[in-house]
């Protein structure tokens, strides 16, 4: 990156010098929002963005799936939380389709079906990480009875197959100060990668202080959740109501 040192670029972008070094060497993938910032720093007036778009292979998968894909596939453990929903990795097809219909009302049915299939099948592409998910008790109230039962049955199957640990957060436990949904991906080398989850996908976070703050938040959420046996009982109730 001609004209600025790695330290200067790191300061201007808000990232670490090691990440900037990884961009230069090709060891780290530069994401779109980072390219936008670099284009601004170097006064390239969109030229860097055009080069990135040209050189970045685009697949038919949506950006919310391709961005964290490689990291997720290497993770040995994943911690997940969403204040309103069942986290994306644990959604069944029916539940995912409901979320996409609400979030993408102008999409045709075939596109909703495709996105729901991608999301519902995502867990099976991972290398069997241990997943701990805190799920709010209200997560299924947005769905119809059939969708609620389908999602609850899916969670029970995952729990009983020891794929995941689902901990239910009671509806009377405050979520003030716990922000939106996020995932913490624990990597084989001991590092933790964080991503904020939203209706359309996951946005990776790379600042160490962001990762540390979300790790502390997840520990507090664990303290608010019901223990595993009581959580399973709550999920069973979702199947029956």
Describe this structure in words.
By secondary structure, the protein is of the alpha/beta class. It folds into two domains: 1-58, no CATH class; 61-240, Endonuclease, Chain A (2-Layer Sandwich). It contains eleven helices and six strands. The chain has a six-stranded mixed beta sheet. β4 (181-186) and β5 form a beta hairpin. α7 (93-103) crosses α8 and α9 runs antiparallel to α11 (228-240). The longest helix is centred in the C-terminal third of the chain and has 17 residues, at 208-224. The radius of gyration is 19 Å and the shape is globular. The N and C termini lie far apart (59 Å). The relative contact order is 0.14. The model is unreliable at 58-67 (pLDDT under 50).
Q: How does the SSE layout of this entry go?
A:
Blueprint: H1 6-13, H2 17-25, H3 32-41, H4 47-55, H5 63-66, H6 69-74, E1 77-81, H7 93-103, H8 109-121, E2 130-136, H9 145-160, E3 164-169, E4 181-186, E5 192-198, E6 201-205, H10 208-224, H11 228-240
Parallel strand pairs: 1-2, 2-3
Antiparallel strand pairs: 1-4, 4-5, 5-6
Helix pairs in contact: 1-2, 3-4, 7-8, 7-9, 9-11
How much helicity do the residues have?
40-55%
**What's the number of extended β-strand segments?**
6
The biggest sheet, with number of strands, parallel, antiparallel or mixed sense and barrel status, is: 6 strands, mixed
Number of DSSP helical runs: 11
Q: Please tell me the CATH architecture of the largest domain by its name.
A: 2-Layer Sandwich
């Amino acid at each position: 990156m001609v004209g600025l040192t790695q330290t200067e670029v790191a300061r201007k972008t808000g990232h670490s010098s090691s990440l900037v070094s990884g961009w230069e060497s090709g060891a780290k993938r530069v994401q779109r929002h980072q390219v936008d910032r670099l284009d601004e720093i170097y006064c390239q007036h969109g030229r860097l963005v055009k080069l990135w778009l040209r050189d970045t292979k685009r697949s038919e998968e949506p950006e919310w799936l391709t961005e964290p894909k490689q990291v997720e596939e290497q993770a040995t453990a994943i911690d997940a939380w969403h204040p309103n929903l069942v986290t994306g990795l644990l959604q069944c097809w029916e539940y995912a389709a409901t979320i996409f219909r609400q979030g993408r009302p102008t999409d045709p049915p075939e596109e909703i079906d495709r996105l729901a299939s991608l999301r519902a099948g995502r867990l099976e592409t991972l290398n069997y990480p241990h997943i701990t998910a805190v799920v709010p008790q209200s997560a299924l109230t947005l769905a119809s009875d059939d969708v609620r039962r389908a999602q609850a049955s899916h969670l029970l199957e995952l729990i009983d197959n020891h794929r995941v640990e689902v901990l239910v957060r009671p509806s009377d436990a405050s979520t003030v100060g716990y922000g939106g949904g996020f995932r913490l991906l624990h990597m084989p080398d001991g590092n933790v990668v964080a991503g904020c989850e939203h209706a359309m996908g996951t946005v990776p976070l790379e600042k160490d202080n962001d990762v540390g703050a979300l790790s502390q938040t997840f520990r507090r959420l664990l303290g608010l959740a019901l223990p595993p046996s009581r959580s399973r009982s709550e999920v069973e109730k979702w199947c029956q109501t």
